[in-house]
Write a structure and sequence with these properties.
256 residues, alpha/beta, Rossmann fold, seven-stranded parallel β-sheet, 51% helix, 15% strand, binds NADP nicotinamide-adenine-dinucleotide phosphate
């Protein structure tokens, strides 16, 4: 019998593709997101391929709701060996007409939603002497970007949060992997009306993340060319240069 993996945000995009990939690797997978029909279809697909999957529709921003969802999946599948806290949202940030709503929503899902899931699995991992927590942050964590300030801030918060938790977890045998993807095809990026350099296919992204999980990488960034670009160039660009590059991409969506 394989190990148990729970994936949040499994109803679409990276989470969906990664759940399929983990099931193919032999994990019994527990699927969480709000859209029940999508989760049912995914669980059926995994079972058709000979895997084991269970799902519980739930929102990650409800602390009790996510606790209950993970407890329900644990009852059906067994204790959690691997948590992939992937659910996330990206909303625009209007700098000149500031409103806290989008920022609050992004932090509720991208930071607190992740932490609630962590809170639900780590005590049992500690008791059992090991486990693996994977969070899907973003290359956007490296620099606040015009139009996406709230999203970047939420992903930076998530990255730093796990960085601070990791040393204590390591002493309890719990591994942590923080994933920083570049642009990946998904419902999230489908909405973007600007050029997305090195946009990657969803299944390929899922295979790369699954590989990083197998290798128990502490931090995993991809695609590597985008990672270098962001870490060594974008992150250090003067504000005016960055703003004009972002403006140029947004004003010429025909290049998509
Ligand atoms: N695509 C990219 O280029 C990219 C790049 C860097 C990082 N990321 C990160 O990758 C992760 C997956 O994103 P994606 O690109 O695959 O986008 P996506 O296709 O929009 O998937 C987002 C997933 O999160 C779930 N979700 C959203 N809000 C939720 C909530 N309140 N409670 C429970 N589930 C919720 C959605 O399911 P329901 O709507 O059914 O609840 C969906 O399954 C996100 O954390 C995102 O920030 C993506």
């Amino acid at each position: 019998m394989g190990e148990v993996a729970i994936v949040t945000g499994a109803s679409s995009g990276i989470g969906r593709a990664l759940a399929v990939e983990l099931a193919r690797e032999g994990y019994r997978v527990g699927l969480i997101a709000r859209r029940a029909d999508r989760l049912d279809a995914l669980a059926a697909q995994i079972r058709d391929e000979g895997g084991r999957a269970e799902c519980v529709p739930a929102g990650v921003t409800g602390r009790d709701e996510i606790q209950r969802a993970i407890a329900g999946l644990t009852e059906r599948l067994g204790p959690v060996d691997l948590l992939v806290a992937n659910a996330g949202i990206a909303l625009g940030t209007d700098a000149l007409v500031p409103a806290a709503d989008a920022l609050e929503a992004e932090f509720r899902v991208n930071v607190f939603g992740v932490f609630y899931a962590i809170e639900a699995v780590v005590p049992s991992m500690r008791e059992r002497g090991g486990g693996h927590v994977v969070v899907i942050s973003s290359l956007a964590a490296h620099r606040g970007l015009p139009g996406a300030a709230g999203y970047c801030a939420s992903k930076a918060a998530l990255t730093r949060l796990v960085e601070g938790l990791r040393p204590d977890w390591a002493r309890a045998g719990i591994h942590a992997t923080t994933v920083h993807p570049g642009y990946v095809r998904s419902e999230m990026t489908e909405r973007n009306r600007f050029r997305m350099p090195l946009l990657m296919d969803t299944d390929r992204a899922a295979r790369l993340i699954a590989g990083a999980i197998r290798r128990k990488r502490k931090v995993y960034e991809f695609p590597w060319r985008m990672s270098l670009l962001v870490r060594y160039l974008v992150r250090h660009l003067p504000d005016r240069v960055l703003a004009s590059l972002v403006r140029r991409d947004r004003e010429r969506p025909e290049q998509l």
